Amino acid sequence: MLEVENLTKYYGDLCAVNDLSFRVEEGELVTLLGPSGCGKSTTLHSIAGLVEPTEGHIRLREKDVTDLPPEKRNIGMAFQSTALFPHMTVRENIAYGLQMHGNTSDDIETRVDESLDLVDMPDHGDHKPGELSGGQQQRVSLARALAYEPDILLLDEPLTGLDRVLREEMRGWLNRIQREVGVTTLYVTHDQEDALSMSDRVIVLDDGHDQQIGSPERIYESPANPFVAEFIGKSTQFDGTVTHEDGRAVVYNDSKAITLPDSAIEGDKSVSLYVRPEDIKVHSEPTDSENEFSGTVRSIANLGNRAEITVEFEDGLTALAHTTRFPDITVGDKVFLRFPADRVIVL
Ligand code: ADP
Fold first, then answer.
1. In whole numbers, what is the pLDDT of the chain averaged over residues?
2. Phi and psi for 339 in degrees, rounded to 5?
3. Which of 3, 153, 173, 264 has the fewest Cβ atoms within 10 Å of its own Cβ atom?
4. Protein residue closest via CA to atom 16 of ligand 1
5. Secondary structure of residue 284 in the 3-state scheme
């Protein structure tokens, strides 16, 4: 459906996007996720025709659109700043987009009504954008982008700037609309929760290049490299060197021997290990199991459905564990952390 092939963009000497290739299939919601400055917007704007690539090709429905102007690409866009015209009503804003795409006036009225229904705002057509909440403005912006039935919808940080509760609500809402309409969508965000909760697939970008492309589950459970492991989700990191003991692979850092999953890992290799907080159990007594280490509780953040506990080991390293509900421990307690070998990510 959308094919980005070897996309490269230089601004002077600065390489903003570096030989990036990916595909988005019909009806998929794919997220471009990465830190600020990694090249997300440049990629999106190249697809929209707002930025001219230095090298590479963009294909939409098998057609090479690399040299076509934006208005010839049948792409719908919605931005973080909604870019609605403040002096026009909601209806006029949506109609304006349709006129730009050559729709006739009869058709326009029907399409405006349909798109306002789609975003659950049938009674807001005569309001000006300034009279609407942030979330409502985003919905109008989406209605405008969808009204002319684009081949692909490009969303650039549409939820940034909304408060947490509204943001979570809008995620579910956007997902529902996207599935309902079945529109192929490329979603740009620096927010991993947006990406993990909404996407069919995620493209993790850093320095203008893809670090990993995969389902949310895959990039969380099996990150391809330390950048992805550290950017997506929280974890406790141990660095060390692999040795083999009794047929098991073990990593030694200065003070600990950590047993690894049963897979062939070469000896004498320096590795970084990552353990997710939900895989670490907190005990008040030792059980003499493998991968059990003692430490002191440094902080407890109760998050309602779980608590996030920071524990400092004797060697100064800190670990992060999640417990269910409110744990029966306090700051300063000595505790024992334990994690199964098969939950250790080795990179
Ligand atoms: P992101 O959307 O991930 O924050 P951008 O695509 O906006 O990243 O930017 C990637 C890099 O390109 C950054 O270093 C940014 O400063 C630079 N950049 C973006 N737009 C321009 C421009 N018009 N002129 C010069 N440099 C730019």
1. 89
2. -145, 145
3. 264
4. 37
5. coil
Q: 275 or 119: which carries more pLDDT confidence?
A: 275
- DSSP letters along 17-64, please? EEEEEEEE-TT-EEEEE--TTSSHHHHHHHHHTSS--SEEEEEETTEE
Q: pTM value? A: 0.88
Largest CA distance in the chain: 78
Q: Atom 15 in ligand 1: which residue has the minimum CA distance?
A: 37
- Ligand 1 within 6 A of 303 CB? no
d(C-alpha 301, C-alpha 313), whole Å: 18
Q: How many CB atoms lie within 10 A of CB 71?
A: 11
- Predicted confidence (pLDDT) per residue in 49-86, tens digit: 999 999 999 999 999 999 999 888 888 888 766 678 88
Structural domains of the chain in order of their starting residue, each with its CATH number? 2-230 (3.40.50.300), 234-346 (2.40.50.140)
> What separation in angstroms does the CA of 136 have from each of 80, 140, 142, 193?
13, 6, 10, 21
Q: C-alpha angle 124/126/129, rounded to 5°?
A: 75
Cα(208) to ligand 1 centroid in Å equals: 10
